[in-house]
UniProtKB/TrEMBL annotation:
The lineage of its organism: Bacteria, Bacillati, Actinomycetota, Actinomycetes, Micrococcales. PANTHER family: MAJOR FACILITATOR SUPERFAMILY (MFS) PROFILE DOMAIN-CONTAINING PROTEIN, PTHR23528. This is MFS family permease. It is found in: Cell membrane. It is a multi-pass membrane protein. It comes from Agromyces atrinae. It comes from the Bacteria. Keywords: Membrane, Transmembrane, Transmembrane helix. GO terms for molecular function: transmembrane transporter activity. The chain crosses the membrane at residues 39-61, 73-91, 112-131, 137-158, 170-193, 199-217, 253-274, 286-308, 320-338, 344-367, 388-410, 416-434.
Amino acid sequence: MTESSTPAAGLGAQSAALLAESTQEGTPGGREPRSYMPALGIVNFGVWIALLTPVMVSMAFKLQRITETQEEATAALGLVLGVGALFALVANPLVGRLSDRTTSRFGRRRPWILGGVIVGFLSLTLVGVASSVWLVLIGWCFAQASLNAVLAAANATLPDQVAPARRGKVSGVVGITTPLAILAGSFLINYIGDDVTRFVAPALVALLFGIVFVVVLKDRVLTEKPATRFTLGQFFGSFVFNPVKHPDFGWTWLTKFLVMFGYAGIATFLPFYLGERFGLDEQETIGIILLANLASTAMMAISSPIGGILSDRFGKRRPFVTAAGLIMVIGLLLLAFAPTVPLVVLAQGIIGLGAGAFLSVDLALATQVLPNPADTAKDLGVLNIANALPQSIAPAMAPGIIALGATTALGGYTTWYLFGALVSLAGAVLVYRIKGVK
């Protein structure tokens, strides 16, 4: 924040007033409903367990079983995750904008959340039963689109429901759901042997928790239709913003993209890395991933709430983002050169420590640089492109970088993780280009 007493820094006085009004409607004393924060946490947990369990573990083994060689499996993983993430990239800001304009008596956000978890469940079931790479690709694209629609609509309720001074705390709760979902997904996969259940079980969690959020949410109803029609120009405008007019928003987007590339994009190939470097079979690999995710989650459980609370208390966001990025760099460097499996687990713990601090503050920072309070969900959706895009670009880049690294003394996966460390370092430094937030 520019001043600790100034909510919604970077917004004009009228915009700040509109945002303050939206956060206090139906919330006596300016506080969100008591059930809101845990409900937002569980819907995020449900969506992330459905999306990240395949990304981190089960998709790699699924594709290994329906392809003939390791090279084919690696290429298929890059194709499926890369194209699927593009669907997430489109769905997130588009549904965010549409939910801003939704006039249903059911509310602005709830129709998208309920529809998204239902389609997501059906899509992941298709992935589970698929016997070809193309069917997996189709199912995964629908899953990414529908479940990211849920994220766009659900997280857009944060500025609807929560006063600016409390967003760091709520953002911290949202942030911790990501590692918890990864850990829970690893536990599921460790005890589930067949591909169908490996995809259906996380999807069922997302469906049930999405329904809980829909029931609990005191959603705002838009009583009047928007004055302007939703045009093709607005459709394409759902994915863009003017970084010259809104530089803080632009730098926030870039920082988020770079840090998330190091966190989410790099981790996708961990199952193949463990198998190649240490000669582990599938079940051994799943066990190590479980331990690594346990270490990561434990560290995130420490850093995520502390980061959110301290950033609220000191009225600062940037130092926490920078520290988080630097800690992640240390973890990625250790992962790149780890000579033993225990050091891989330690590296994942260090990465988790940094990621927890980042995720706890990131959403709170983002809500303070939004260009237009009338387009809250759309703008948050544009920022969420920075979450989805690394998951598209990284799998597409990985086979080439790994192959290039394999021709050097470093080796393919060492080169890949070093590249991730450099990208995260850039994100940690560039956050100080944001001027409207301390």
